[in-house]
Amino acid sequence: MSGGNIFQIQRWSIHDGDGIRSVVFFKGCPLRCRWCANPESWNSRPQVVFFSEQCSGCGRCARVCDAGAIAVNAGSPAVFTREKCRDCGQCCAVCPTGARKKIGSRVTVEEVMKIINRDAIFYRESGGGVTFSGGEPFAQAHFLRELAMACKRVGIDTAVETCGYFNWRQVKDIFAFLDCVFMDIKHMDDCIHQELTGVSNRAILTNIAAVSRIHPNVIVRVPLIKEINAGEQNIENMCRYLRENTLVKGIEILPYHDFGRKKFNAVGIVIDHTFTTPDDVTVENVKQLISTFGIPILEFK
To answer: What parts of the sequence cross the membrane (predicted)?
Structure first.
């Protein structure tokens, strides 16, 4: 069987669809969202990440690094020259504090299914299943297709979390093997969307409409950020588009969190922004506004 690149399989998740689920995180993403919770997923290849705050300065990593990418001064955290790193992972194997980790691996469909099947009884009893996330699963369309088909053959419920940025014609057939589709809307203004994510939102909005016409269980997710997309005009524009152009089942609001901030530093991405988690009043106001358009608010617990 063929394979693909992933960076984690999280078991016992209860926040990525109904019931108890295993979440398969695909590596590689076409977007560069400034608030991303998983920036280690951007690069499609396995890579070494470095959490400098955990480094003891012991020097073991520098002694095994053949690329000369690590320099250590006694008692200080190591200096990591990422451009020299070959991502071999030798430094990770000797790091005593977990400051260095190799993220990502090449796996086969068979290997992933072995892990998924361990919890099959819990999927059935809880109404759960498997969720494909990332990164962006549709960036590895062939691998996603084979995994979804393998799950269907053994009766496991499947869901996907996607940014919606894909070639519709190349992936249309995959939706027949998915029971639930979560699709993000980051912002309705195309210029702002490009500034925040690096890509246009036009294909994303078109794909949400297209998928909702052939799939009965399409849910729009909104990563809500107070100073970015929680404004009344943006929410109204989104709701109007969804009501007039789609058949989505509803909207799920996901308030922003800063869990990914340390990861940006670890993968060597400089961030010069600060985002704010919306307060309860802001979230409630957004939900009430959405409700005026007759679009259901959905929650998964």
So the answer is: none
